[in-house]
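Practice problem 4.
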């Protein structure tokens, strides 16, 4: 069982091909603790996009610890990380953890993945739209139309497609949780298109919460600060990776296990009177909104 270390770990200079693999990271991210669950999500059927690694893995494991059945949507080449996540869930917490590979940048694959999950689960209690990507650039002129479309397709368009496909299987009491970012509030000079999608997610979350409130479906978001995930060594230079997260008030990035409790809270009945809101897990950065 992993243990959370509040002290900043030493990140070696490292790099990977995009979007990165968790099993290749040094040190590997912390995604679970020895703290027992409390059945907050007993027998709920939950979907986590990007649940193979990073924040998604920590959320999937935390949900399973709380008694939920999990379906993870991941890219085909992320199969090893996905299998590792499923093994942890099945060995420690729940017998059922379904894996579905899909490129969520296309609507048809979103629909196909959700249909397969509904066939297995019958209903959906929690949908976590977590998968995302970014490509750092120094200047807006370096952002190609291809990159722009891919970033928006994965980070925000997929949320529309996933939710549209899942809604028929979601009943009163269900919950949708979207992953945004601190960059939605303070911006990022080197992540222009990524930050734009994360801002869109905030507006989408608030608007959808109002749209679905009469159906009894809650919609909220989590806006993490820097988190040690595979996207980091896959996106930034080895020098930046070695200093990642040191510009936060806590002088370090979060481990995924420190972010996942926010998702558990929003998915559970503890948050039954909360919708259209954002939880900021960012190491002490003060943001408006």
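Answer key:
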């Amino acid at each position: 069982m992993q243990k959370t270390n509040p002290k900043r770990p030493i990140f070696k200079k490292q790099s990977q091909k995009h979007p990165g693999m968790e099993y290749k990271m040094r040190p590997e991210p912390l995604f679970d603790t020895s703290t027992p669950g409390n059945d907050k999500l007993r027998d709920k059927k939950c979907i986590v996009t990007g649940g193979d690694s990073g924040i998604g893995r920590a959320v999937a494991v935390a949900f399973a610890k709380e008694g939920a059945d999990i379906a993870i949507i991941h890219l085909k080449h992320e199969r090893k990380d996905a299998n590792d996540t499923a093994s942890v869930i099945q060995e420690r917490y729940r017998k059922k953890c379904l894996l579905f590979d899909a490129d969520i940048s296309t609507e048809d694959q979103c629909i196909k993945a959700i249909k397969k999950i509904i066939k297995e689960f019958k209903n959906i209690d929690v949908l976590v739209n977590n998968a995302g990507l970014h490509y750092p650039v120094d200047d807006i002129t370096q952002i190609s139309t291809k990159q722009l479309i891919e970033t928006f397709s994965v980070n925000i368009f997929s949320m529309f497609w996933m939710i549209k496909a899942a809604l028929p299987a979601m009943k009163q009491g269900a919950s949708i949780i979207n992953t945004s970012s601190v960059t939605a509030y303070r911006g990022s000079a080197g992540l222009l298109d990524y930050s734009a999608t994360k801002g869109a997610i905030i507006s989408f979350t608030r608007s959808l919460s109002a749209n679905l409130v009469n159906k009894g479906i809650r919609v909220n978001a989590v806006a993490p600060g820097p988190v040690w995930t595979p996207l980091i060594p896959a996106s930034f230079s080895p020098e930046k990776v070695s200093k990642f997260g040191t510009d936060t008030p806590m002088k370090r990035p979060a481990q995924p296990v420190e972010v996942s409790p926010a998702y558990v809270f929003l998915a559970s009945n503890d948050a039954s009177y909360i919708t259209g809101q954002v939880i900021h897990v960012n190491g002490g950065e003060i943001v408006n909104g």
